[in-house]
């Protein structure tokens, strides 16, 4: 794997670094977003159940 | 100390009419207290006052959170809403939970010695001697606490309460699985404590087995 | 109305939920152009470093992440004080919301550090003082996140994590110093990964722009995660239902 | 004697008396240290120079793991038999009780590891004229490790899977002690006096002595439910 990266010279290491940086940013923001939806979903479902019970 | 063979007089409680809220005698005021477990309130918000020299009984069936409430009042847990205010120093509180807190490997006397040292009150050999006789624990002094029965362990914890009494006792189901003699012991202990101006908060899930006038506070499950 | 009462009122969950909505939106709007401009500067405009050649460009990503991994830890420590002393729900949410992003920035620092080390030193992992302390910091983040989630009572978990965070923040400078002292003891002073050699002005700009980008990113992700942690912990209360349009 | 000091000595005497009734725990942690050293000895024993180079590192890592292992059971028994509640609500301050507890724990587990250090040094073929410095460094480092372990144990006492979490919490914080102790021994073996590392380790341990019991008391109090 390293040889393959080396074949691109320095750019073989620069591009993965920036890719990791951007992907990590996107991944963390994504996790935040899915957590947000999960919480909202849970609250709506709970309220719906509660309304059915009443 | 009541002579052991005298029949326990029915202790006439201080008149508990509508409690006059005078800050002097009020040891604890609880306003709209409720406890959360897993994000859900356990019982409806609660308010009561603990007067000096009186007993408050927290009645609730199992699982409604009476132990959590007692631990919260003792400062061992954190309440969710509402607040409670002690008008007595934290060092005056004594808590007796399901586990008496005895070190199994140490002997009964060692446990008592370390307890009383930790409670920062002196070691009065005569009182200890009398207490051991009164709680018929004589002969078990050097036994490791692990060898004692549950009832005996409970009595050691009660003896400790008698030897280093604080202003307010928080007892979690003190009458649970006690024999007739044990119940009489607990009642006498509470009676003497009240007479000396202390106060007690105890939890129980049914009727008290003894006639103690109490301010009954019921926990209503949400 | 004194400043403190205003600040305290801002800290109340419903108000916090409302005013941070605008912050989050503005942070995202500002983040994307800053990031693009920073990448443009870092990759295309700034010249290759005379010593390390092109691979020095990794510095423009590695250094901002390293700074962020430390900044986030100190922000968490500040929130931890609020959690322990005033037991504010908002502080608990803010502290726990920052931990994943801090761990992410530390991981990025480690990975880009390894990718930078390969061409310059010939090996991916070097027990260089900076990389080692970043690795320790990464485990400190994991420790805080794991401890906060280990408690069934979410608020007790936040308080336990706050204690660990404060003990950690006291130990952090000592860890960094001990690792650097250990390195100088071992091989004399190695070439420092973050070369303090005179950074040419044109190299400085991309670094600053990308650092600003990471700050904006952090604010956006941090506040939005904190908002919804607050909503989750207050999911019983009326203001949550009202905000979600579920008011009975 | 002031009230605080009396609570410290009370807790100290209780822990010592308790441990003497059950000496197995001490032998377990010493045995674990010797066993781990034996494994490294077998692995590296083949080439003496490799063993000589890695010797101090193996010794300190073993000390760290052994004291971490011992510390994970520190509060477990108190939680089970209810004495943790009595400590939390007792008139004597919780921090004083924890000082007594951790100093007793160090005297039992820490110093027993230090007494075992000559055997470990022998197995790892370290040169023996550095033994005094090694023993002094281990004494200081084990106290620091136990203090850190106290904070970790306090934060994880009420958790079921607490032991694994304790490792994740405490081991990163033990890096300075490991590095300072190792630095003292390594610089001594290179001829300079090992005072620098020793002083740094002592400074770290003193800081922990001031910080750890208070942090552990706070940890116990706010996570109790």
Describe the structure in brief:
By secondary structure, chain B is α/β, with parallel strands linked by helices. Chain B is built from five helices and ten strands, in the order βββββαββαααβαββ. In chain B, helix 3 (125-134) packs antiparallel against helix 4 (150-163) and helix 4 (150-163) packs parallel to helix 5 (180-195).
Largest sheet of chain B: 5 strands, parallel
Number of helical segments with 4 or more residues of chain B: 5
Oligomer: heterotetramer
Cross-sheet strand order for the largest sheet of chain B? 7-8-9-5-10
Kindly report how far apart the N and C termini of chain D lie. 34 Å
- Count of strand segments of chain D: 0
Alpha-carbon Rg of chain D, integer: 18 Å
The chain-level mean pLDDT of chain B equals 80
The SSE order of chain B reads EEEEEHEEHHHEHEE
Largest sheet of chain D: none
Class computed from helices, strands and strand pairing of chain D: mainly alpha
Radius of gyration of chain B: 18 Å
Total tally of structural domains of chain D: 1
Order of helices and strands of chain D: HHHHHHHHHH
List low-pLDDT spans of chain D: none
**Uncertain spans of chain B, ≥5 residues at pLDDT below 50?**
1-23
What level of helicity do the residues of chain D show?
over 70%
Number of strands of chain B: 10
Helix count of chain D equals 10
Bulk shape of chain D: elongated
How much helical structure, as a percent, in the residues of chain B? 25-40%
């Amino acid at each position: 794997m390293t040889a393959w990266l080396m074949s691109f010279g320095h750019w073989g290491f620069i591009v993965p670094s920036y890719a990791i940086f951007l992907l990590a940013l996107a991944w963390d923001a994504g996790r935040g977003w899915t957590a947000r939806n999960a919480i909202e979903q849970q609250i709506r479902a709970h309220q719906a159940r509660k309304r059915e019970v009443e | 100390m009541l002579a052991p063979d005298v029949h326990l007089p029915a202790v006439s409680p201080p008149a508990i009419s509508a409690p006059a809220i005078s800050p002097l005698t009020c040891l604890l005021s609880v306003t709209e207290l409720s406890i959360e477990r897993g994000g859900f309130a356990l019982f409806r918000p609660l308010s009561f006052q603990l007067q000096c020299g009186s007993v408050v009984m927290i009645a609730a069936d199992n699982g409604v959170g009476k132990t959590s409430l007692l631990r919260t009042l003792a400062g061992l847990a954190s309440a969710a809403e509402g607040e409670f205010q002690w008008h007595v120093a934290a060092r005056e509180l004594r808590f007796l939970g399901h586990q008496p807190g005895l070190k199994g490997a140490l002997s009964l006397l060692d446990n008592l010695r370390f307890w009383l040292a930790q409670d920062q009150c002196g070691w009065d050999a005569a009182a200890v001697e009398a207490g051991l006789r009164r709680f018929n624990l004589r002969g078990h002094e050097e036994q490791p606490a692990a060898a004692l029965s549950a009832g005996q362990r409970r009595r050691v914890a009660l003896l400790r309460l008698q030897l280093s009494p604080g202003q307010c006792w928080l007892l979690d189901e003190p009458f649970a699985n006690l024999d007739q003699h044990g119940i009489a012991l607990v009642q006498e202990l509470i009676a003497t404590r009240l007479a000396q101006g202390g106060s007690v908060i105890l939890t129980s899930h049914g009727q008290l087995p003894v006639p103690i006038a109490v301010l009954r506070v019921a926990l209503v499950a949400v | 109305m004194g400043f403190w009462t205003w600040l305290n009122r801002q800290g109340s969950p419903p108000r916090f939920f409302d005013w941070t909505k605008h912050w989050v939106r503005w942070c995202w709007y500002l983040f994307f152009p800053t990031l693009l401009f920073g990448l443009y500067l870092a990759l295309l405009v700034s010249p290759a470093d005379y010593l390390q050649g092109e691979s020095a460009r990794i510095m423009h990503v590695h250094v901002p992440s390293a700074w962020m991994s430390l900044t986030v830890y100190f922000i968490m420590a500040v929130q931890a004080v609020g959690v322990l002393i005033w037991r504010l729900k908002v502080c608990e949410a803010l502290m726990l919301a920052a931990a994943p992003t801090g761990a992410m920035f530390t991981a990025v620092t480690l990975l880009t550090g390894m990718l930078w080390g390969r061409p310059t030193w010939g090996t991916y992992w070097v027990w260089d003082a900076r990389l080692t302390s970043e690795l320790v910091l990464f485990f400190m983040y994991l420790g805080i996140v794991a401890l906060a989630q280990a408690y069934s009572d979410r608020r007790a978990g936040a308080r336990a994590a706050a204690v660990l965070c404060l003990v950690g923040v006291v130990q952090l400078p000592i860890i960094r110093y001990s690792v650097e002292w250990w390195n100088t003891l071992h091989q004399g002073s190695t070439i420092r990964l973050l070369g303090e050699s005179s950074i040419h002005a044109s190299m400085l700009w991309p670094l600053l722009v990308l650092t600003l980008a990471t700050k904006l990113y952090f604010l956006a992700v941090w506040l939005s995660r904190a908002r919804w942690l607050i909503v989750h912990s207050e999911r019983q209360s009326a203001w949550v239902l009202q905000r979600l349009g579920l008011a009975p | 004697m002031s009230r605080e000091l009396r609570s410290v000595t009370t807790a100290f005497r209780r822990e010592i008396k308790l441990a003497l009734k059950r000496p197995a725990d001490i032998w377990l942690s010493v045995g674990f240290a010797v066993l781990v050293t034996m494994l490294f000895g077998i692995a590296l024993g083949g080439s003496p120079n490799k063993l000589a180079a890695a010797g101090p590192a193996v010794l300190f890592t073993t000390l760290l793991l052994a004291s971490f292992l011992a510390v994970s059971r520190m509060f477990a028994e108190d939680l089970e038999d209810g004495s943790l509640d009595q400590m939390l609500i007792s008139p004597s301050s919780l921090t004083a009780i924890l000082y007594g507890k951790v100093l007793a724990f160090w005297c039992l587990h820490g110093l027993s590891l230090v007494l075992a250090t000559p055997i470990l040094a022998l197995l790892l073929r370290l040169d023996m004229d550095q033994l005094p410095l090694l023993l002094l460094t281990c004494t200081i480092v084990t106290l620091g490790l136990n203090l850190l372990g106290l904070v970790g144990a306090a934060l994880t006492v009420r958790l079921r899977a607490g032991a694994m979490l304790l490792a994740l919490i405490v081991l990163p914080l033990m890096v300075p002690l490991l590095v300072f102790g190792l630095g003292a021994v390594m610089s001594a073996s290179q001829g300079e006096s090992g005072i620098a590392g020793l002083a740094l380790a002592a400074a770290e341990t003193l800081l922990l002595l001031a910080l750890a019991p208070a942090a552990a008391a706070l940890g116990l109090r706010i996570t109790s439910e």
